[in-house]
Design brief:
The protein has two helices and no strands. The protein is mainly alpha-helical.
């Protein structure tokens, strides 16, 4: 997704939510923002899952080192 970082995606998502909650958007613009928001949520979710997997691996490796 266009080389976004998690932090950039999260910030953009916050901006989209604020615009959608304002209730001042035309239906077509709101629909486009909603679609973009869904993409960003999926991106953030995948980034978090990836980080969780890496942390789990590190934790397991550390546990193995301590046991040795």
């Amino acid at each position: 997704m266009e080389n976004l970082t998690y932090e950039q995606a999260s910030k953009e998502l916050e901006q989209i939510v604020a615009k959608l909650e304002s209730g001042t958007l035309a239906m077509q613009e709101a629909g486009k923002l909603f679609d973009r928001g869904q993409e960003l949520v999926q991106f953030c979710y995948s980034q978090l899952n990836s980080a969780k997997g890496k942390l789990t691996t590190i934790k397991e490796q550390l546990g193995n080192l301590i046991e040795e």
